[in-house]
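Task 17 of the worksheet. Students: predict the tertiary structure of the chain below and write it out as structure tokens. Keep your answer in the requested format; marks are given for formatting as well as content.
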Amino acid sequence: MRAFSPVRVVLLVVLAALLSGCGYNQIQQKDEAVKAGWSEVINQYKRRADLVPNLVNTVKGYASHEERVLTEVTEARAKVSQINVNANDAQSLAKFQQAQGELSGALSRLLVVTENYPNLKADQSFRDLQAQLEGTENRITVARGRYIQSVQDYNTYIRQFPVNLTAT
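Model answer:
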């Protein structure tokens, strides 16, 4: 059996070194895209939560006896504001998703209640807030979709050869 010459050994070492670094920058780039996508999701949820006080105050002016629904919305917003979410912590993420779901449900109930008040529906500031809320809901959907796509791109990339050899 013939031994490897020193030149071949050096070439193999260089090739192994090149392959081990193969894709490192791309992994970092995709990881940053995931982080940026998650930040955008959080920003849109915060934007929605920031609209709630104005919406509640506007509705309160016309439908003050709908106290239960207004309280639900206010409490749901407070709960959302208290959660510090970490996308890498399943328990934290579950609490965040639950709180956001509760806020969505409370806002839906509030908007259903507003259907009973034609003067409120005619109020320009209410219509503006409702349009902002709808726009924010759309932004949340888009941001979540982009986040999911960036996570899928990252996960697919780190599982491909030869990247999967070094992506630990």
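Marker's comment: The chain has a mean pLDDT of 89. The CA atoms of residues 156 and 164 lie 10 Å apart.
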